[in-house]
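Encode chain A's predicted structure.
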Amino acid sequence: MLTTGGAGRISSTVASARIDFATTPVILDNLSTGNAEFVEDRIFYRSDIADTELDRRIFAEHPDLDAATHCAALAAMEEPVREPLAYYRENVAKTAALLENLVESGRRRRAQY
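Encoded structure for chain A:
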C-alpha cells in the first residue's frame, strides 16, 4: 500500500495500521510539514507526490503495490485564503498528477483517495 504524506500525524497512523494488518506501507512524503521520525524504520521515499519519475521507480521497485492511501496535502487554516493558487497547485494539481501516475502504472481498481 502506497501512503502519500506518510510522515504526517494522521497518515503515519494509517501506515501503522497497515503494519498491524500485515501490510507493508511504502511511504512517499516531501517532509515539508511531516515529521521524519514518523517514517523511521519504514520504506520511505522523500519527494513530491507529482514526481512522475520517482512514482515510476516506486512502482517498479514495489510491483506488489495494489492501492494508495492519499494523505499528502497542505492543511493550514488561514494560508489558503492568502495563497489560494499555491494551495490549488499543491492539493489539486499534484493530486491529479499522482492519480495519472497511478493509472499509468496499472493501479486503477482498488485505489483509495
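The mean pLDDT is 88.
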